[in-house]
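Researcher: Let's do a round of design. I'm pasting the C-alpha coordinates now; please hold your answer until I've finished.
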Protein backbone atom coordinates (compact mmCIF):
# COMPACT_ATOMS: atom_id res chain seq x y z
CA UNK A 1 0.00 0.00 0.00
CA UNK A 2 1.08 3.56 -0.67
CA UNK A 3 -0.22 6.97 0.40
CA UNK A 4 -2.13 9.00 -2.18
CA UNK A 5 -4.54 11.89 -2.25
CA UNK A 6 -8.08 11.41 -3.50
CA UNK A 7 -7.26 13.67 -6.46
CA UNK A 8 -4.07 11.86 -7.39
CA UNK A 9 -5.82 8.49 -7.16
CA UNK A 10 -8.33 9.65 -9.76
CA UNK A 11 -5.54 10.93 -11.98
CA UNK A 12 -3.77 7.57 -11.68
CA UNK A 13 -6.96 5.74 -12.67
CA UNK A 14 -7.27 7.78 -15.85
CA UNK A 15 -3.59 7.32 -16.69
CA UNK A 16 -3.62 3.55 -16.14
CA UNK A 17 -6.80 3.03 -18.16
CA UNK A 18 -5.46 5.13 -21.04
CA UNK A 19 -2.29 3.05 -21.02
CA UNK A 20 -4.33 -0.16 -20.94
CA UNK A 21 -6.86 0.74 -23.65
CA UNK A 22 -6.24 3.04 -26.63
CA UNK A 23 -10.00 3.64 -26.92
CA UNK A 24 -10.01 5.61 -23.66
CA UNK A 25 -9.67 9.38 -23.97
CA UNK A 26 -10.77 12.50 -22.08
CA UNK A 27 -12.37 15.75 -23.15
CA UNK A 28 -13.36 18.93 -21.37
CA UNK A 29 -12.41 22.49 -20.59
CA UNK A 30 -8.84 23.27 -19.48
CA UNK A 31 -7.62 19.66 -19.53
CA UNK A 32 -4.42 20.68 -21.30
CA UNK A 33 -3.37 22.74 -18.30
CA UNK A 34 -4.29 19.92 -15.94
CA UNK A 35 -7.95 20.58 -15.30
CA UNK A 36 -9.51 23.13 -12.96
CA UNK A 37 -8.44 21.11 -9.89
CA UNK A 38 -5.27 19.56 -11.36
CA UNK A 39 -6.79 16.11 -11.83
CA UNK A 40 -5.34 15.80 -15.37
CA UNK A 41 -1.93 17.31 -14.64
CA UNK A 42 0.73 16.06 -17.06
CA UNK A 43 -1.61 13.75 -18.96
CA UNK A 44 -1.72 15.80 -22.16
CA UNK A 45 2.08 15.73 -22.29
CA UNK A 46 1.92 11.97 -21.81
CA UNK A 47 -0.86 11.09 -24.25
CA UNK A 48 -1.12 14.07 -26.60
CA UNK A 49 -3.84 16.59 -27.34
CA UNK A 50 -5.85 14.04 -29.30
CA UNK A 51 -6.51 11.93 -26.22
CA UNK A 52 -6.55 14.67 -23.56
CA UNK A 53 -8.64 17.09 -25.56
CA UNK A 54 -9.41 20.71 -24.73
CA UNK A 55 -12.89 21.81 -25.75
CA UNK A 56 -14.90 25.00 -26.17
CA UNK A 57 -16.84 26.31 -23.16
CA UNK A 58 -20.02 24.42 -24.01
CA UNK A 59 -21.14 21.55 -21.81
CA UNK A 60 -23.79 20.50 -24.34
CA UNK A 61 -21.13 20.36 -27.07
CA UNK A 62 -18.76 18.37 -24.86
CA UNK A 63 -21.39 15.83 -23.86
CA UNK A 64 -22.87 15.52 -27.35
CA UNK A 65 -19.45 14.86 -28.88
CA UNK A 66 -18.71 12.27 -26.19
CA UNK A 67 -22.01 10.44 -26.71
CA UNK A 68 -21.37 10.18 -30.45
CA UNK A 69 -17.80 9.04 -29.87
CA UNK A 70 -18.94 6.38 -27.40
CA UNK A 71 -21.54 5.10 -29.85
CA UNK A 72 -18.84 4.63 -32.47
CA UNK A 73 -16.44 2.59 -30.38
CA UNK A 74 -14.39 4.81 -28.04
CA UNK A 75 -14.58 5.22 -24.26
CA UNK A 76 -14.72 8.94 -23.46
CA UNK A 77 -14.13 10.45 -20.03
CA UNK A 78 -16.22 13.61 -19.94
CA UNK A 79 -14.99 16.32 -17.56
CA UNK A 80 -17.79 18.65 -16.45
CA UNK A 81 -15.69 20.63 -13.90
CA UNK A 82 -18.67 21.08 -11.53
CA UNK A 83 -21.84 19.02 -11.30
CA UNK A 84 -23.78 22.28 -11.40
CA UNK A 85 -22.42 22.99 -14.91
CA UNK A 86 -23.39 19.53 -16.12
CA UNK A 87 -27.02 20.61 -16.05
CA UNK A 88 -26.30 22.34 -19.37
CA UNK A 89 -25.69 18.87 -20.84
CA UNK A 90 -28.57 16.94 -19.30
CA UNK A 91 -30.43 16.42 -22.59
CA UNK A 92 -27.48 14.70 -24.25
CA UNK A 93 -26.88 12.52 -21.19
CA UNK A 94 -30.45 11.70 -20.18
CA UNK A 95 -32.27 11.60 -23.51
CA UNK A 96 -29.47 10.18 -25.65
CA UNK A 97 -26.76 8.32 -23.70
CA UNK A 98 -29.06 6.76 -21.10
CA UNK A 99 -31.64 5.57 -23.64
CA UNK A 100 -29.57 4.50 -26.65
CA UNK A 101 -29.07 0.88 -25.56
CA UNK A 102 -32.82 0.43 -25.07
CA UNK A 103 -33.92 2.31 -28.18
CA UNK A 104 -31.52 0.39 -30.43
CA UNK A 105 -32.63 -2.97 -29.04
CA UNK A 106 -29.32 -3.66 -27.32
CA UNK A 107 -27.31 -3.27 -30.52
CA UNK A 108 -25.49 -0.21 -29.20
CA UNK A 109 -23.75 0.70 -25.95
CA UNK A 110 -22.63 4.13 -24.73
CA UNK A 111 -19.52 3.46 -22.59
CA UNK A 112 -18.71 6.91 -21.25
CA UNK A 113 -17.87 8.32 -17.81
CA UNK A 114 -19.12 11.76 -16.81
CA UNK A 115 -16.93 13.17 -14.03
CA UNK A 116 -18.98 15.65 -12.00
CA UNK A 117 -17.24 17.20 -8.95
CA UNK A 118 -19.95 17.66 -6.31
CA UNK A 119 -20.57 19.03 -2.87
CA UNK A 120 -19.85 21.96 -0.63
CA UNK A 121 -16.43 23.57 -0.85
CA UNK A 122 -15.90 26.56 1.39
CA UNK A 123 -17.69 29.66 0.02
CA UNK A 124 -18.36 28.26 -3.45
CA UNK A 125 -21.97 29.46 -3.19
CA UNK A 126 -25.22 28.26 -4.70
CA UNK A 127 -24.06 27.50 -8.26
CA UNK A 128 -20.88 25.58 -7.41
CA UNK A 129 -21.83 23.51 -4.34
CA UNK A 130 -24.74 21.23 -5.13
CA UNK A 131 -25.05 17.47 -4.66
CA UNK A 132 -27.40 16.31 -7.41
CA UNK A 133 -27.01 12.54 -7.34
CA UNK A 134 -30.75 11.89 -7.00
CA UNK A 135 -31.35 13.56 -10.38
CA UNK A 136 -29.38 10.76 -12.03
CA UNK A 137 -30.45 7.77 -9.92
CA UNK A 138 -33.96 8.52 -11.20
CA UNK A 139 -32.95 7.90 -14.83
CA UNK A 140 -33.05 4.32 -16.21
CA UNK A 141 -29.87 3.51 -18.10
CA UNK A 142 -27.44 5.48 -15.94
CA UNK A 143 -24.96 4.08 -13.42
CA UNK A 144 -24.23 6.49 -10.54
CA UNK A 145 -21.02 6.32 -8.49
CA UNK A 146 -19.85 8.42 -5.50
CA UNK A 147 -16.40 7.48 -4.09
CA UNK A 148 -15.39 8.62 -0.60
CA UNK A 149 -11.76 7.48 -0.27
CA UNK A 150 -8.59 7.63 -2.32
CA UNK A 151 -8.56 3.86 -2.82
CA UNK A 152 -12.17 3.88 -3.98
CA UNK A 153 -11.56 6.82 -6.30
CA UNK A 154 -8.87 4.73 -7.98
CA UNK A 155 -10.78 1.46 -8.08
CA UNK A 156 -14.24 2.78 -8.87
CA UNK A 157 -13.06 5.14 -11.61
CA UNK A 158 -11.23 2.27 -13.32
CA UNK A 159 -14.37 0.10 -13.07
CA UNK A 160 -16.48 2.96 -14.42
CA UNK A 161 -14.22 3.47 -17.44
CA UNK A 162 -14.51 -0.24 -18.22
CA UNK A 163 -18.31 -0.23 -17.83
CA UNK A 164 -20.30 -0.55 -21.06
CA UNK A 165 -23.06 1.79 -19.85
CA UNK A 166 -22.91 5.55 -19.17
CA UNK A 167 -21.64 6.31 -15.66
CA UNK A 168 -22.19 9.54 -13.75
CA UNK A 169 -19.12 9.71 -11.55
CA UNK A 170 -19.46 12.16 -8.65
CA UNK A 171 -16.24 13.13 -6.87
CA UNK A 172 -16.52 15.35 -3.79
CA UNK A 173 -14.50 18.55 -4.16
CA UNK A 174 -13.76 18.76 -0.44
CA UNK A 175 -11.97 15.40 -0.62
CA UNK A 176 -9.40 16.31 -3.31
CA UNK A 177 -6.57 16.76 -0.80
CA UNK A 178 -7.56 13.93 1.54
CA UNK A 179 -4.90 11.24 1.81
CA UNK A 180 -5.38 7.53 2.23
CA UNK A 181 -3.77 4.17 1.58
CA UNK A 182 -4.05 2.96 -2.01
CA UNK A 183 -2.95 -0.41 -3.45
CA UNK A 184 0.19 -0.14 -5.58
CA UNK A 185 -0.81 -2.74 -8.18
CA UNK A 186 -3.97 -3.23 -10.22
CA UNK A 187 -6.98 -2.12 -8.18
CA UNK A 188 -10.54 -2.26 -9.48
CA UNK A 189 -13.57 -1.95 -7.17
CA UNK A 190 -16.72 -3.64 -8.51
CA UNK A 191 -19.66 -1.37 -9.19
CA UNK A 192 -22.74 -1.98 -7.05
CA UNK A 193 -20.87 -3.19 -3.97
CA UNK A 194 -21.00 -1.20 -0.71
CA UNK A 195 -18.24 -1.05 1.89
CA UNK A 196 -18.71 -1.52 5.63
CA UNK A 197 -16.61 1.41 6.83
CA UNK A 198 -17.20 0.64 10.51
CA UNK A 199 -18.83 -2.35 12.14
CA UNK A 200 -21.47 -2.02 14.86
CA UNK A 201 -24.40 -3.77 16.48
CA UNK A 202 -26.90 -1.09 17.58
CA UNK A 203 -27.76 1.10 14.59
CA UNK A 204 -26.96 1.17 10.88
CA UNK A 205 -25.85 4.37 9.16
CA UNK A 206 -26.02 4.34 5.35
CA UNK A 207 -24.17 7.12 3.57
CA UNK A 208 -21.88 7.94 0.64
CA UNK A 209 -19.32 10.43 -0.66
CA UNK A 210 -18.02 13.06 1.79
CA UNK A 211 -20.55 12.10 4.47
CA UNK A 212 -18.74 8.81 5.07
CA UNK A 213 -16.16 10.64 7.13
CA UNK A 214 -18.62 12.68 9.18
CA UNK A 215 -20.61 9.53 9.93
CA UNK A 216 -17.52 7.71 11.18
CA UNK A 217 -16.70 10.68 13.44
CA UNK A 218 -20.26 10.62 14.82
CA UNK A 219 -20.09 6.86 15.38
CA UNK A 220 -16.83 7.25 17.29
CA UNK A 221 -18.44 9.91 19.49
CA UNK A 222 -21.33 7.62 20.39
CA UNK A 223 -18.98 4.74 21.14
CA UNK A 224 -18.15 6.55 24.39
CA UNK A 225 -21.84 6.30 25.31
CA UNK A 226 -21.92 2.55 24.68
CA UNK A 227 -23.64 2.83 21.29
CA UNK A 228 -22.00 0.90 18.45
CA UNK A 229 -23.00 2.25 15.05
CA UNK A 230 -22.32 0.41 11.81
CA UNK A 231 -21.38 2.72 8.92
CA UNK A 232 -22.06 1.56 5.36
CA UNK A 233 -20.62 3.53 2.46
CA UNK A 234 -22.74 2.69 -0.59
CA UNK A 235 -20.00 3.80 -3.05
CA UNK A 236 -22.34 3.04 -5.97
CA UNK A 237 -25.79 4.65 -5.76
CA UNK A 238 -27.19 2.86 -8.77
CA UNK A 239 -27.19 -0.04 -8.62
CA UNK A 240 -27.08 0.14 -4.82
CA UNK A 241 -26.11 -2.79 -2.61
CA UNK A 242 -29.42 -3.80 -1.07
CA UNK A 243 -28.00 -7.06 0.24
CA UNK A 244 -25.37 -5.39 2.44
CA UNK A 245 -27.76 -2.72 3.71
CA UNK A 246 -30.57 -5.18 4.48
CA UNK A 247 -28.21 -7.57 6.28
CA UNK A 248 -26.95 -4.76 8.50
CA UNK A 249 -30.43 -3.48 9.36
CA UNK A 250 -31.60 -7.02 10.12
CA UNK A 251 -28.74 -7.15 12.65
CA UNK A 252 -29.20 -3.72 14.26
CA UNK A 253 -32.93 -3.09 13.84
CA UNK A 254 -32.33 0.63 13.27
CA UNK A 255 -31.43 2.75 10.25
CA UNK A 256 -30.30 6.33 9.71
CA UNK A 257 -29.57 7.45 6.13
CA UNK A 258 -27.25 10.46 5.88
CA UNK A 259 -26.42 12.55 2.82
CA UNK A 260 -25.17 16.05 2.07
CA UNK A 261 -27.82 16.66 -0.59
CA UNK A 262 -31.13 18.32 0.20
CA UNK A 263 -33.25 15.88 2.20
CA UNK A 264 -36.39 16.51 0.13
CA UNK A 265 -36.50 13.88 -2.64
CA UNK A 266 -32.91 12.86 -1.87
CA UNK A 267 -31.70 9.36 -2.66
CA UNK A 268 -31.91 8.60 1.06
CA UNK A 269 -35.69 8.45 0.65
CA UNK A 270 -35.31 5.50 -1.73
CA UNK A 271 -33.17 3.59 0.76
CA UNK A 272 -35.46 4.44 3.67
CA UNK A 273 -38.57 3.34 1.80
CA UNK A 274 -36.95 0.12 0.56
CA UNK A 275 -35.86 -0.86 4.08
CA UNK A 276 -39.21 0.08 5.62
CA UNK A 277 -41.09 -1.98 3.02
CA UNK A 278 -38.86 -5.05 3.26
CA UNK A 279 -37.89 -5.11 6.94
CA UNK A 280 -40.68 -3.33 8.82
CA UNK A 281 -41.21 -6.39 11.01
CA UNK A 282 -37.53 -6.34 12.12
CA UNK A 283 -37.25 -2.65 12.97
CA UNK A 284 -36.87 -1.45 16.57
CA UNK A 285 -37.37 2.20 15.62
CA UNK A 286 -38.72 4.16 12.64
CA UNK A 287 -36.30 4.57 9.75
CA UNK A 288 -34.72 8.04 9.84
CA UNK A 289 -33.13 10.37 7.27
CA UNK A 290 -30.75 13.29 7.62
CA UNK A 291 -29.98 15.67 4.78
CA UNK A 292 -29.59 19.36 4.06
CA UNK A 293 -32.49 21.80 4.35
CA UNK A 294 -34.19 22.84 1.10
CA UNK A 295 -32.31 26.13 0.75
CA UNK A 296 -29.70 27.46 -1.68
CA UNK A 297 -26.13 27.15 -0.39
CA UNK A 298 -24.86 30.57 0.64
CA UNK A 299 -21.47 32.17 0.02
CA UNK A 300 -21.16 33.55 3.57
CA UNK A 301 -19.57 30.86 5.78
CA UNK A 302 -22.00 31.40 8.67
CA UNK A 303 -24.99 30.91 6.36
CA UNK A 304 -23.29 28.10 4.45
CA UNK A 305 -22.87 26.20 7.71
CA UNK A 306 -26.64 26.18 8.19
CA UNK A 307 -26.86 23.90 5.15
CA UNK A 308 -24.10 21.54 6.29
CA UNK A 309 -24.76 18.07 7.67
CA UNK A 310 -22.21 17.97 10.49
CA UNK A 311 -21.05 15.19 12.83
CA UNK A 312 -22.95 16.93 15.66
CA UNK A 313 -26.17 16.80 13.65
CA UNK A 314 -25.55 13.14 12.87
CA UNK A 315 -24.97 12.38 16.57
CA UNK A 316 -28.24 14.10 17.48
CA UNK A 317 -30.12 12.11 14.83
CA UNK A 318 -28.58 8.87 16.04
CA UNK A 319 -29.58 9.61 19.63
CA UNK A 320 -33.18 10.13 18.51
CA UNK A 321 -33.05 6.83 16.65
CA UNK A 322 -31.74 5.07 19.75
CA UNK A 323 -34.57 6.22 22.04
CA UNK A 324 -36.32 3.35 23.86
CA UNK A 325 -39.09 1.67 21.92
CA UNK A 326 -42.57 2.99 22.79
CA UNK A 327 -44.78 0.73 24.86
CA UNK A 328 -47.58 -0.66 22.68
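Researcher: That's everything. Go ahead.
Model: Designed sequence:
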Amino acid sequence: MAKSTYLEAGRRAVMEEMQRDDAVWALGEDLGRGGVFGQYKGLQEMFGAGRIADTPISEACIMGAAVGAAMTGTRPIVEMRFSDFALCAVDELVNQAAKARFMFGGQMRVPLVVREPVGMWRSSAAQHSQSLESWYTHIPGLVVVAPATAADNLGLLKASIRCDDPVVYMEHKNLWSMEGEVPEGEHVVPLGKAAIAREGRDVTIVTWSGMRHGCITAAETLEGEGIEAEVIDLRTLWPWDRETVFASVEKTGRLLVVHEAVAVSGFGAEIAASVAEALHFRLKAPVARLGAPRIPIAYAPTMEDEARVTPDKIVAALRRTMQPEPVS
